[in-house]
Amino acid sequence: MPFCVSAFYAGTALYWNVCPIIGDGDGDGHPEVYISPPGSQMLCLNGANGNLKWGRDFQSYIYSSPALADIDGDGKPELIIGTNNNAVWALNAEDGSTSWVYALPSNATGSPAVADIDRDGKAEVVIGANNLKVYALDYDF
Ligand SMILES: [Ca+2]
Ligand SMILES: [Ca+2]
Ligand SMILES: [Ca+2]
Predict the structure, then answer these.
(1) pTM higher than 0.85
(2) 100 C-alpha to center of ligand 1: Å?
(3) Interacting residues of 92 by C-beta distance below 8 A, sequence separation 6+
(4) Ligand 2 center to 80 CA (angstroms)
(5) Residue 134 C-alpha to ligand 1 middle, in angstroms?
(6) What is the DSSP string of the chain?
(7) Is it the case that residue 113 has pLDDT exceeding 50?
(8) How far is the centre of ligand 2, averaged over its atoms, from the C-alpha of 9 (Å)?
(9) 8 Å CB contact between 30 and 22
(10) Is the pLDDT of residue 141 over 60?
(11) Are 78 and 64 in contact (CB under 8 A)?
């Protein structure tokens, strides 16, 4: 069952709403929890005990809930997020290192979705931005 973390200003205005994603990002057969708490960090937690496996600060707000998928076809999942400094990141889900980063013309405030939308056998990353446009990124850019 999906769950999200919401933060509110004093009163009722929504301040932040992010949803973690759970999956086996390092291939050891045990799930990790990937979440960006309010701020600029992405955290990978041990799904069994909540211990931090890795964390990374993007120096920019993350309003984006992450996606976990093998977008380059190497058998290992990438963690995909958008950041408020106009970037879409694909991270090595095992250690948080950068696989690639793509610059958008606007803040990547949406949450990415991954699917093979052109049916070429390779996944695209689709994400909405603050300029009210939706971008589909091909891995082979
Ligand atoms: Ca794991
Ligand atoms: Ca991969
Ligand atoms: Ca495709």
Answers:
(1) yes
(2) 21
(3) 76, 78, 79, 98, 99
(4) 11
(5) 31
(6) ----EEEE-SSS-EEEEE--EEE-SSSSSS-EEEE--SSSEEEEEETTT--EEEEEE-SS---PPPEEE-SSSSSS-EEEEEETTTEEEEEETTT--EEEEEE-SS---SPPEEE-TT-SSS-EEEEE-TTS-EEEEETT-
(7) yes
(8) 38
(9) no
(10) no
(11) no
How many CB atoms lie under 10 A from the CB of residue 32? 26
Other Cβ atoms within 10 Å of 79 Cβ, number: 25
Compute the average pLDDT of residues 55-82.
94
pLDDT at 2 over 60: no
**Amino acid, single-letter form, for residue 52:** L
